Amino acid sequence: MKLFCTLSLIITVFIGYTQDVPSKEWQIKTAVLAAPAEFQKEAKVYGYDSEGKFTTLREGTNAYICLADDPMKEGFSAAAYHKNLDPFMVRGRELKAAGKKFKEIFDIREEEVKAGTLKMPDKATLCVFTGTINPESKEIEDTYVRYVFYIPFATAATTGLPTTPTPPGHAWLMDPGTHRAHIMITPPKKKE
């Protein structure tokens, strides 16, 4: 009976998951919104197949890679980053798939970047496009873009930036002095 209940739960979760994965076309259409307009048409796009497995949805021919919204997470969040950041991102996904938590992933990548076994570009851009999905139209609403500029091992002294969050629209340096040092800029939310 216990085995039957466990199998029933797994099947129910699996069926529920596959029904919640948006179409490939919708994932591509919404994922590229994270990239600057001039890079959207030719960007590579990662997303999810009908079974919820992370996969390449479209090959690209320019410098940008886009990530579709994860259908199993609340809200909407797509991202786009320069292709030079892909080894760093791929390694993070590998470690997460292996069951590692945020701090472990951070520490492992820090060691690997310092050892030279994980290539981290000296600068790279990441854009995160966030919003809510209108349940009827499937359009993304209440959107904003957060900009992240990776500058490994940058500090307040080398950039002149504060290391604590600032009001929206102002830049600050997160994770200073580490492989993951990056300038954060979150624009102010739109006024109603």
Write the layout of secondary structure elements.
Elements: H1 2-20, H2 24-31, H3 37-40, E1 44-48, E2 54-58, E3 64-67, E4 76-82, H4 86-97, H5 102-115, E5 124-133, E6 140-150, H6 156-159, E7 171-174, E8 182-185
Helix pairs in contact: 4-5
On the 0 to 100 scale, the average pLDDT is 88
Q: Widest sheet: strand order?
A: 2-1-3-4-5-6-8-7
Beta strands, count: 8
Query: What is the element string, with H for helices and E for strands?
Result: HHHEEEEHHEEHEE
Q: How would you classify the helix and strand content by structural class?
A: alpha+beta
State Rg.
19 Å
Percent range for β-strand residues: 25-35%
Oligomer: single chain
Residue windows where pLDDT falls under 50 for at least 5 positions: 1-18
Describe the fold and architecture.
With 192 residues, the chain is of the alpha+beta class. The protein is built from 6 helices and 8 strands; from the N terminus they run H-H-H-E-E-E-E-H-H-E-E-H-E-E. Strands 2-1-3-4-5-6-8-7 form an 8-stranded mixed beta sheet, with helices on one face. Helix 4 packs across helix 5. Mean pLDDT is 88; it is low at 1-18.
